[in-house]
Amino acid sequence: MAALEFLSKAMVIKQGAEARVYRSTFLGKPTIVKERFPKRYRHPVLDEKLTHRRTVQEVRSILRCRKAGISAPVVYFVDYTSHCIFLEEIVGSSTVRDYIASNQQSGSCRQQDLEQLAERVGRILAKMHDEDVIHGDLTTSNMLLRCSPENGECDLVLIDFGLSYISAFPEDKGVDLYVLEKAFLSTHPNTEALFEKLLKSYTASSKKSPAVIKKLDEVRLRGRKRSMVG
Ligand code: AMP
């Protein structure tokens, strides 16, 4: 109840089908709170179980990433009664989506920056998959760039692990990349070569990548067949 009372004074920044996202201050720190609310169309016992599991999985994946040196928000507090996760707000960040879009607009002179970023994303995802973390919703909106005003260096932070889980299966990792490929190419037109750079860097960064890329190719083929039939 204390968490819900806290949220009554926080600002809603996103209302999704499964969760509400708030911005607030917790113990003096800028904080994002993700609240999973009950779904009336589900049986209450099943709903409680599913919601609990998703909250546990989200926290577990974030902690696994952070332990491996992959930037993700600090988890400040979790309330398993109201299904709220209190996370570090990545202050002053912009999404990779906005970064790519604004660089594409400004012409080819920034191509090198984009390629470096794509390679960096590939390396981080390889590291995440080597930890057996499947993100479940990889998009360029779920990657934030936090740049230091002092030296201009940027940190790439992964967010929104709401659909994540732990799996060592190459197929799960291949599907994770496929989801990103679909989102990437539809959000950023004419970036096939850029996405290939990302995949090349993923391949070079992970010893387990051949099996994952093989699965990615299979999923792509299945996707193509399905769209031909449809
Ligand atoms: P989510 O449902 O986790 O994707 O969050 C919705 C939106 O809130 C994201 O698209 C971001 O713009 C923002 N957001 C989520 N988590 C953070 C965070 N830790 N720091 C800053 N912004 C965030």
Describe what you observe in this structure.
- The chain is α+β, with helices and mostly antiparallel strands.
- The chain is built from 7 helices and 10 strands.
- A hairpin with a 2-residue loop joins strand 2 and strand 3.
- It is globular, with a radius of gyration of 19 Å.
- The termini are far apart.
- The mean pLDDT is 94.
- The chain binds adenosine monophosphate.
- Adenosine monophosphate binds next to strand 1, strand 3 and strand 5.
Please give a quick description of this structure.
With 230 residues, the protein is of the alpha+beta class. It has 7 helices and 10 strands.
Helices and strands in order, then pairings?
Elements: H1 2-7, E1 11-15, E2 19-26, E3 29-36, H2 44-67, E4 75-79, E5 84-88, E6 93-95, H3 96-105, H4 111-130, E7 133-134, E8 143-147, E9 154-158, E10 165-166, H5 170-187, H6 192-205, H7 209-229
Helix pairs in contact: 4-6, 5-7
Bound molecules: adenosine monophosphate.
What keywords describe this structure?
3-stranded antiparallel β-sheet, alpha+beta, 49% helix, binds adenosine monophosphate, 5-stranded antiparallel β-sheet, 10 strands, globular, 230 residues
Number of strands: 10
Q: Note the total helix count.
A: 7
What oligomeric state do these chains adopt? single chain
Q: What portion of the residues fall into strands of 2 or more residues?
A: 15-25%
Structural class: alpha+beta
Estimated helix fraction: 40-55%
Reading the helices and strands in chain order gives HEEEHEEEHHEEEEHHH
Query: What Rg, in angstroms, do the CA atoms define?
Result: 19 Å
Large-scale geometry: globular
